[in-house]
Design brief:
The complex is a heterodimer. Chain A is an alpha/beta fold. Chain A has helices spanning about 45-55, 95-100, 100-105, 110-120, 140-150, 170-185, 195-200, 235-250, and strands spanning about 5-15, 20-30, 35-40, 60-65, 70, 80, 155-160, 190-195, 205-210, 215-220. Chain A is built from 8 helices and 10 strands. In chain A, the strands form 2 sheets. Chain A has a 6-stranded mixed sheet, sandwiched between helices. In chain A, strands 2-1-4-5 form a 4-stranded antiparallel sheet, with helices on one face. In chain A, α6 links the parallel β7 (about 155-160) and β8 (about 190-195). In chain A, α4 (about 110-120) packs across α5 (about 140-150) and α7 crosses α8 (about 235-250). Chain A starts with a strand and ends with a helix. The longest helix of chain B is centred in the last third of the chain and has 38 residues, at about 165-205. Chain B has 11 helices and no strands. Chain B has a single domain (about 40-250), classed as MetI-like fold (Orthogonal Bundle). Chain B is flat, with a radius of gyration of 23 Å. Classes of the chains: A alpha/beta, B mainly alpha. The interface of A and B includes residues 85, 134, 154 and 158 of A.
C-alpha cells in the first residue's frame, strides 16, 4: 500500500503580501498504489510545484496531501525524487552514489554492497561502478539518479521531468528501462513532464493541467496494453490520445 | 625537428627562459663599472652569503624558527576557519549571530593588530603565532563560508528526499560539495601566513627569516637580504606546489582540477 491523496490543495507564493501569486488552485487527486501517473501541462501550470510539495520540500498554503492516510510534512525516504537537473553527487563514485541511501540509514555493510550490486546492474551501469560521475554521459548520470532513488527503497517515486535534458534516443531508452524497473518493483510513480508522448507511453493515467493558476483540466485513462514497446508510439490509438490531449494544453 | 620545437616552446623551457633573462639582466647590471655592490650585490656574492650562513648554522636556525611559526599559525588559523566557516555557512542561526562580526573584522588588515598584540602579550613567540593565525583565519573563513553557501540546492534536495537528516546533509553533502572552495581558502591562507610572518618578524623577533632580513638591513649586508628574499620565495613556492598536488589528489572527482 502506498496511496497518495491530494485534498483541496491551493498554493499561493507570498500569501498575504501584495505580490501574492496563486500557482495551484483546488487540486484534488488520488494516486492508487502501484500506478504510474503522469502530470502534463505547459510551463507555469504548477506541476513541478505540486510534485515538490509531495516530496515535502515545502508545504502547501492551503489543503493537504496524505500518503497512506498520513499527512505529508517534510521530506521522508518513503517519497523519493528524481530531478530534472543532474543530482549525481560528483565526489562519489557511481557505486557510492547508488548506496548513498542505505549508507545514511546505517544499514550494515553487506546490505549496502548488495544494494550497489543490484541497482548498478538494474539501471544498466555494470562495469562503471568505480567511475566518477564526470566520466559519464548525461543519460548515464540519469541512470545513476534513478538507481540511487530505487536503492533507497521508497514507497513512492516522484519524477520531475527527469529526461527533459536528454536527446531523443537516450530518452526513449530510458523510458523503456524505467517501465521495466517499475513493473518489477511495483512502486507508485508520479511523473511530471511537458512531453505528451512520454506521458502517454509511460502511464496508466495522464493528468492534464491548465495554467495560471494551475488547475486539473482533464484526467485520461490510458488503456494501451502493457508491456509497451516503441512501435506503439506510432499506432493510431496512441496518436488519437495524443491529439486529444494536445488540444487540451494551453498553447 | 617538430618535436624539438614543441619541447622548446613548452611550459618548462619558457618558464626557465624568463627567469634566466631576469637573472642575466640583474647580473649584467651588477658588473657595470659604476655599480655599488652594497646596493646591488652580484649573484656570486648572494650565493656566497647562502653558504656562509649555512656553515654558521644561522640560516637553518632562522628557517626552522619561521617554518615552525608558519605551520602552527596556519594550522590553528585554518582549523578554526574550517569549523566556524562550515557552521556559519550552513546554519542560519549561527550565521545571523557570527557573520556580522566576521564582516566587521574582515576589512582590518591583520598587521593592524600588531600593536595591540604586543601590548597584551609582549613580543613572545605566542604573539607571532597568534598574528599568523588571525591572518590565516580571516582569509580562509570567507572562502569556507562562500563554499557552504554555494552548495547546489539540487544535491541538498536529493539527499533530503532520500531521508537524510539536516546534520547528515551537512556532513555528507555540504562539506564535500564545498571542498573546492575550502582548498582555495587554505591556499590563500598559506600565502597570507608568509606575508604576515615576515612582517611580524621584521618588527620584533629574536630569530627567523624576517629577523635575518632586518639584520641584513642594519649591517648593510645586502647580499644576505637578497639571499633571504630568494629563500622565502622558494619556500612559499614549494609549499604552494605541495598544496596543489594535495588539491589534485583530493579533487580527482572534480571536472576542473586546477
Amino acid at each position: 500500500m502506498s496511496e497518495i491523496r491530494v485534498n483541496d490543495l491551493t498554493h499561493t507564493f507570498g500569501k498575504g503580501t501584495p505580490e501574492a501569486l496563486t500557482v495551484l488552485e483546488g487540486i484534488n487527486l488520488e494516486f492508487s498504489s502501484g500506478s504510474f501517473t503522469s502530470i502534463v501541462g505547459t510551463s507555469g501550470c504548477g506541476k513541478s510545484t505540486l510534485l515538490k510539495m509531495m516530496a515535502g520540500l515545502f508545504d502547501p498554503s492551503d489543503g493537504e496531501m496524505t500518503l497512506d492516510g498520513q499527512v505529508i510534512k517534510g521530506t521522508d525516504r518513503k517519497r523519493g525524487m528524481v530531478f530534472q537537473q543532474d543530482a549525481v553527487f560528483p565526489w562519489m563514485t557511481v557505486a557510492k552514489n547508488i548506496s548513498y541511501g542505505p549508507r545514511i540509514h546505517g544499514e550494515p555493510k553487506a546490505a549496502q554492497m548488495a544494494a550497489e550490486t543490484k541497482w548498478v546492474e538494474a539501471v544498466g551501469l555494470k562495469g562503471f561502478e568505480d567511475r566518477w560521475p564526470r566520466e559519464l554521459s548525461g543519460g548515464m548520470r540519469k541512470r545513476v539518479d534513478i538507481g540511487r532513488v530505487y536503492a533507497n527503497d521508497p514507497d513512492v517515486l516522484l519524477m520531475d521531468e527527469p529526461f527533459g535534458a536528454l536527446d531523443a534516443q537516450t530518452k526513449e531508452r530510458l523510458q523503456s528501462d524505467l517501465l521495466t524497473t517499475w513493473k518489477e518493483t511495483q512502486k507508485t510513480v508520479i511523473f511530471v513532464t511537458h512531453d505528451l508522448e512520454e506521458a502517454i507511453f509511460l502511464s496508466d493515467q495522464v493528468i492534464v493541467m491548465s495554467a495560471r493558476p494551475g488547475r486539473i483540466r482533464h484526467i485520461e485513462d490510458i488503456s494501451l496494453p502493457r508491456p509497451r514497446n516503441d512501435e506503439m508510439r506510432l499506432t493510431p490509438e496512441f496518436l488519437d490520445i495524443k491529439r486529444k490531449l494536445w488540444k487540451m494544453l494551453d498553447h | 625537428m617538430n618535436s624539438l620545437k614543441r619541447i622548446l616552446s613548452g611550459r618548462l623551457v619558457l618558464g626557465a627562459l624568463s627567469i634566466a633573462l631576469v637573472l642575466g639582466a640583474y647580473q649584467f647590471a651588477t658588473v657595470q663599472p659604476d655599480n655599488n655592490p652594497a646596493l646591488l650585490p652580484p649573484i656570486p656574492d648572494i650565493i656566497a652569503s647562502f653558504f656562509t650562513n649555512v656553515e654558521a648554522g644561522s640560516l637553518q636556525q632562522a628557517l626552522w624558527a619561521s617554518l615552525y611559526r608558519i605551520f602552527l599559525g596556519f594550522f590553528i588559523g585554518t582549523s578554526c576557519a574550517l569549523i566556524i566557516g562550515c557552521l556559519v555557512g550552513w546554519y542560519k542561526t549561527i550565521e545571523f549571530l557570527i557573520d556580522p562580526l566576521i564582516e566587521a573584522i574582515r576589512p582590518i588588515p591583520p598587521l593592524a593588530y600588531i600593536p595591540i598584540i604586543i601590548i597584551w602579550f609582549g613580543i613572545e613567540e605566542f604573539s607571532r603565532v597568534l598574528l599568523i593565525s588571525i591572518a590565516c583565519f580571516m582569509v580562509c573563513v570567507v572562502n569556507v563560508i562562500a563554499g557552504m553557501k554555494n552548495v547546489p540546492q539540487v544535491y541538498v534536495d536529493a539527499a533530503s528526499t532520500m531521508g537524510a537528516s539536516r546534520f547528515q546533509v551537512f556532513r555528507t553533502i555540504a562539506v564535500p560539495a564545498a571542498t573546492p572552495f575550502i582548498i582555495t581558502g587554505y591556499r590563500i591562507a598559506l600565502a597570507a601566513a608568509w606575508t604576515t610572518l615576515v612582517a611580524a618578524e621584521l618588527i620584533a623577533a629574536p630569530s627567523g627569516l624576517g629577523f635575518m632580513l632586518q639584520e641584513g638591513r642594519r649591517y648593510f649586508l645586502t647580499d644576505q637580504v637578497m639571499m633571504i628574499i630568494v629563500i622565502i620565495g622558494a619556500c612559499a613556492f614549494i609549499m604552494d606546489r605541495t598544496f596543489r598536488a594535495i588539491q589534485k589528489r583530493l579533487m580527482v572527482w572534480s571536472e576542473a582540477r586546477d
